[in-house]
Amino acid sequence: xxxxxxxxxxxxxxxxxxxxxxxxxxxxxxxxxxxxxxxxxxxxxxxxxxxxxxxxxxxxxxxxxxxxxxxxxxxxxxxxxxxxxxxxxxxxxxxxxxxxxxxxxxxxxxxxxxxxxxxxxxxxxxxxxxxxxxxxxxxxxxxxxxxxxxxxxxxxxxxxxxxxxxxxxxxxxxxxxxxxxxxxxxxx
Length: 188
Description:
This protein is mainly alpha-helical. It is built from 9 helices and 2 strands.
């Protein structure tokens, strides 16, 4: 028998014994609604994360259109007429292209990543840049059927744009997620 007493056997220590983990984790609970406590679902932020991704993509396209001569986003006069002025049309155009890239990356890229997994492993992940450039080229091709067009001058421009989008959209997304998206504990 051990000389050390456990908190359950001595009344003074029982009152100070730590409670179970689930009772002490109050920060991951949402305030009571009715009589039961409602926990946040892990997927609560998926819509907000998609909006953050679209905005980050739009900012990335805007900066890269200023920096790279081989990338441009153009809109027709119908877009300007619909949105009222040229500034709103430009912002709307970048948001649309960001949305289109988000949809392409959400629907098509996972399949391409899975199919290209052996090549990606052999190149130690560098082939993912080629995949990202391909997704940008696919986005440019899809946008050619809309009044808002993303133009890329060849594969090298797409590769540079993919590297730039990775950097710019990553920074902007991290900042926006820090501001707008709450984690599973309800903290910003």
